[in-house]
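Hi R.,

Here's the chain you asked about this morning:
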Amino acid sequence: MTDPAIIASNLGAAPISSPTSRLVEDVVAALAAEISRDLDVAEMPDKPGDYDLGERPGAVLVHYRGSKYQKGRPSQPRELTFDIHLRLRGQAGRFGFTHMIDAVADCLQDRQFQGSTGFQLESDGLVQEHGGLWDYVVSFTTTMPRAARRQPDWRPY
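And here is the predicted structure, written out as C-alpha cells:
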C-alpha cells in the first residue's frame, strides 16, 4: 500500500516542465485566446470518456498524439502530431463543426511556438457521434529539434 504522505506530496508538487509539455500549453493558450469563451478550451483530460461539457455548447481539447524522429543524427529533428478535438453539440451554426474546423485552422495554421516550425494541417474528420455529441478532430504537424543530453565521460584516464 502506498503511503498517504507520499501521495499528498506528489499531488502538491509542481508540474514537471518539458519542451513538449510547454508546446501543449502554448497551443491551449493560443486557442483559448482566439476561440469563443462559450467553449471550454483545455488539454485532453486523462479520462476523455468522463469529460462533461456541462451547459457549454462544446469544447476544444488539445491532444499530443506523438512524434516521429529522423535517425542517424546527434540532433534528431522530430515531427510532432497534435490532434485538436472538437466536442460539439451540433453540426451547424456558430458552434457547429464546419465553423469550428475553420476557426481552429485559422488560429494554428503556420503558427510557430517554442522553436517549432509553423503548424501544418494534416487532416480533419469525424471521430464519432454519440447521443447528439459530435467529436471531430483537426490534426496538425510541426517539427522541433531534439538534441541528446550530453552525458559526462566517466571513463578512467
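One quick note: Helices lie at 4-11, 19-34, 97-108.

Cheers,
M.
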